[in-house]
Design a protein that fits this description.
The chain is mainly α and about 90 residues long. It has one domain. It has three helices and no strands. The radius of gyration is 23 Å and the shape is elongated.
């Protein structure tokens, strides 16, 4: 084994951790945040019905929930579109 192979292996080993996905990129965390936002919107809506929350807070919570749902639908559409594109590829 020559020295250039060993240096290449060391460089690859050092670069490999940089290719791991970041914690925020994982889909599970995004789904948990989505669930938390929607649950918070529901809680604020219930509090508003009983008079515990002001209308401004209700509008903000509904807007955040609506944005979260639109984002989730948009991501879903992109995933379905990518899957359909893969199915259309010739084998």
């Amino acid at each position: 084994m020559d020295i250039s192979t060993t240096l290449a292996q060391r460089a690859y080993g050092a670069a490999k951790p940089a290719t791991q996905p970041a914690e925020e990129v994982v889909l599970g965390n995004g789904m948990q945040k989505f669930s938390d936002i929607v649950a918070m919107g529901e809680n604020v809506a219930l509090a508003s019905m009983t008079g515990e929350a002001d209308p401004q807070r209700l509008v903000e919570a509904i807007t955040q929930s609506e944005l979260a749902v639109q984002t989730a639908v948009s991501v879903r559409d992109k995933v379905v579109e990518a899957y359909q594109e893969i199915l259309r590829m010739p084998v």
